[in-house]
Amino acid sequence: MENGIANAIVDEYLTLVDDSCVALLPHALRIAAEFGLADLLTGGPMDVEVLARSVDADVGALYRLLRALASVGFFEEVTPRVFALSALGRRLCSEGPDSVRESVLQSDSYHAWAAAPEAFRRGTPVPLSSGPHGGGQDFFAHKDVDASAGRSFTRRMRERAASCYAGVVSIVDWSRSTVVLDVGGGDGFLLSAILRHEPRLTGVLFDRPSVIASVAGRLGELGERLRTVSGDFFRELPDGADTHVMSSVLHDWPDEQVDTILERSRTALAPGGRLLIVEMVVSPGDTWHPSKWSDLGMLVLTGGRERTGPEFEDRLNKAGYTVSAIRPIPGSYFTLIDAEPR
Ligand SMILES: C[S@@+](CC[C@H](N)C(=O)[O-])C[C@H]1O[C@@H](n2cnc3c(N)ncnc32)[C@H](O)[C@@H]1O
Predict the structure, then answer these.
(1) pLDDT at residue 128 above 80?
(2) For atom 11 of ligand 1, which residue has the closest CA?
C-alpha cells in the first residue's frame, strides 16, 4: 500500500472512530467468526431465528449484528430477516484459500492488546491471568496444553503467510538442494508446496511435539519424501539437510534467542548448504509497511520483533552466516533472505 493511501485510510479512521462501523468492525467480525455464521450460511440463506438457535444467540441481537455486517457487504438480507452469504462474507468461512477467519478471531492478540500499555512500559509481554501467556516460551507452551489454541494458531499462521508461499517456491533455485529442513514449519504447508514443485527433493518438517502430533497423518500424499521430526530448536536441529528454511520463525524471538536458533542451524547444516529466511523486513524511513505493525504485535504477544535488513545481517553474521541476497517475495509483503555459512 502506498503511503498516501495509508494516510487517507487513517485520516478517515480518525473521523469515524466513534461508535461507527470503523471502530466496531473488528469486534463485530470477531463475533461473527466465533459463531461460525459464514460456515452456517454456505448451504444457502437462513432465517435469523434458525441461525440464532444454531449458535445459541439472542435472536434480536443476532439480527442487529447481521444487519450491521450486511450494510458493509458481508451478508445480504435477501428477504426480511433471511440472510445470505456474500463473496466478502465467504472470507469468514473456516476453509478456503483467502479465509481470514482465524486472523479475525485472534484471541491471543485480543487478550494481549487489552493489557498492552503495561507491555509498552516494560518492553516485554505481560503475563495474563485471563489470557494464554506471558510471551516467548510461555506463548508456545500454552499451545501445548490447549490443543484448540494450538490448532487455531497454526491456522492463523497459514492465513498470514499463505500469500508468500507460491512466491518462495518460484524464486528459489532448488537445483542445488537435496534435503530441505523446514525449521518451525508449522503444518507443513510451505514444505509440501516446495516438495510438490520439486519432485527430486525430500523434506523434514521440524516443530514442537504438539504441532507435529497434530499434523501427523495429514501429509501422507508426499509419502516417504516428507519426514516429520519433533523437538526444540533451542536445543538441537536434525542434521543431514543442505537447505534450511525458516519462515516467520525468527520474528517470534528477541535477539538472544534468535542467535541460539541460528547457531543450532549453522551446526546442523550439511556442508555446502544454505539457509533461506522468510520474514517481513522493516522498511527504512516513514514508508508504510505491515512489518512496522506486525512488530508491535510481536512486542505484546511473544516478546519478539520484526527486523531491518542490517539487523538480520548482524544476527546472521554472529551465528557464522553471510547474507548472499535479500529479495522481495512476489505477490506478498514478505522478503527472502539467502544466507550461506562463512
Ligand atoms: C510463527 S509460526 C511459523 C510457522 C510456519 N513456518 C509459517 O511460515 O507459517 C512459528 C513456529 O515455530 C514453532 N516453534 C516455536 N518454538 C519452537 C521450538 N522451541 N522448537 C521448535 N519449533 C518451535 C511453532 O510451533 C510454530 O509452528
Answers:
(1) no
(2) 184
